[in-house]
Specification:
Elements lengths: L1 H13 L7 H20 L3 H4 L10 E4 L2 E4 L1 H11 L3 H4 L1 E13 L2 E11 L5 E12 L2 E9 L1
Parallel strand pairs: 1-6
Antiparallel strand pairs: 1-2, 3-4, 4-5, 5-6
Length: about 140
């Protein structure tokens, strides 16, 4: 009987605990993107990649087709952006953050690179998933 009362008390108490809201999730996702922007602007590509899921199942879809895996995506970034002149200064415009299902969001936006190698602008749609308590990009389409 004591176990039943304890269990009911725990369930009742936990129903009053604050649950993460969509706005909390969106803030956390925006924080990941801001960390990426700061790392990019410091020419820290590995720091930039911390926002991505470190898995062979990561997918990046760009103008050269699909790149599979975290290591291959980092290699792609290193090849395309070999110096600070190529990375330049990154700015994001976030146009939409929408929930797909619990623990997953998509983000649509624009990127703007001001750089010595010539400015670059484009659009992206990325999918975030909460993995082990952290928001990670599991798929990225940028062009």
């Amino acid at each position: 009987m004591k176990k039943t009362i304890l269990l009911l008390s725990i369930v009742l108490f936990s129903s009053f605990l604050p649950k993460p809201s969509a706005s909390d999730d969106e803030k956390a996702i925006r924080n990941v993107l801001e960390d990426q922007r700061l790392a990019w602007n410091a020419f820290d590509l590995e720091g930039f990649m911390k926002g991505y899921w470190k898995s062979d199942d990561l997918k990046f879809y760009g103008s050269n087709g699909v790149t599979y895996g975290w290591d291959n995506t980092l290699a792609r970034y290193r090849k395309a952006y070999p110096s600070k002149d190529h990375t330049g200064i990154l700015k994001f415009v976030i146009n939409d953050i929408s929930s797909i299902e619990k623990g997953s969001y998509y983000v649509m936006g624009e990127y703007h690179l001001q750089r010595n190698a010539g400015d670059a602008n484009g659009i992206f749609m990325i999918i975030f998933k909460k993995i082990n308590g952290q928001w990670k990009i599991i798929a990225d389409t940028s062009c």
